[in-house]
Amino acid sequence: MIANPIPWPGGARCAVAMTWDMDADSAFNWYNKDTADTLVAAQSWTRYDPLIAIPRLVEQFARRELRLTFFVPGWVIEKYPAQIDLLATHGHEIGLHGYLHERSNEIGEDDELYWFGRGLDAYKRHLGKGPRGWRAPSFAFSKHSLRVLLDTGIEYDSSLMGDDIPYALREAGGNRSLLEFPTDWTLDDFPHYAHNRDLGYRMPISAPLRAMEVFRSEFDAAWEFGGLWISVWHPALSGRLARFKAALELLDYMRDKGGVWFARLDQICDHVQQLIAAGRWTPRVETLPIYDSPLPEFSRTG
Fold first, then answer.
1. Is residue 71 a contact partner of residue 19, using CB atoms and an 8 Å limit?
2. What is the DSSP secondary structure assignment for residue 66, as one 8-state letter?
3. What is the pLDDT of residues 144-189, one digit of tens each?
4. Residue 61 phi, psi (nearest 5)
5. Angle at 260 between CA 257 and CA 265, to 5 degrees
6. CB neighbour burial string for 246-278, b if at least 16 within 10 angstroms, e if fewer
């Protein structure tokens, strides 16, 4: 069913990247600039992420010898440096995820560049080098985002949803490109668990068993057809006891099935780049922007 199957290392049936967006209280402050200090219950809900969930995740993944990718806003790097160090010392990749979890497609081009620059500076100050990967906060990749990423040397993005395997994003009118590692809303924990009245999240709360049923069915299809399974988890949601227990059981299911390459996204990036350089595989290329809005078909003249 996949028209351009990619060979995975060691003859694996599929690749699995369990990624985590460590948002903490960044988006909480972005959308509640003047009232965040008095929304104390919601504040505590978001801070469960770095204070409770991150140490729990690190401990459990170390037991399983798993190293994963965590996307972190620059402001969170500044405010929770000990948690960033904990992730880094345990071999997890840290990708960039904005500065205050700003949605790039809701702000202008100049503002997007400004906030991206602040996030990048915060990342470099703490980690000593730039990130290889990026995920747009809330998947809000704008028509300017590709150029911003290319200008700063980002090698891959994981915000879009246009394929079942890696593909390439090329800048319109040029030859520059980067790799896209796609995910999908079916592989995000937010629709299952995000319910907070103060923040306007009104998702019907799923039992972990129901959420894992969705994740597992997507994994089974990726395993059958050779896909790339990239899940998106949030420590404030899936780091809680019952949900994280279910996530670990899902990992055990995958391991027991066999034929799975568990990898960080930077490792997948290395693998895909090596395949391309050796002429063993060529990704599908999509040029951005696809079109400009409004479409000319809306015009009633001419």
1. yes
2. -
3. 999 999 999 999 999 999 999 999 999 999 899 999 999 999 999 9
4. -70, -30
5. 145
6. bbbebbeebeeeeebbbbbbbbbbebbeebeee
What letters, b where the CB count within 10 A reaches 16 and e where it falls short, cover 91-105?
ebbbbbbbbbbbbbe
Q: Which amino acid is at 176?
A: R
> Is the entire prediction scored with pTM above 0.90?
yes
Residue boundaries of the structural domains of the chain:
21-286
Q: Is the separation of the CB atoms in 154 and 134 below 8 Å?
A: yes
Which residue in the block uniquely carries the two structure tokens 């879009």? 160
Give the model confidence (pLDDT) of 82-128 as tens digits.
999 999 999 999 999 999 999 999 999 999 999 999 999 999 999 99
Question: Could you tell me which CATH number the domain at 21-286 has?
Answer: 3.20.20.370
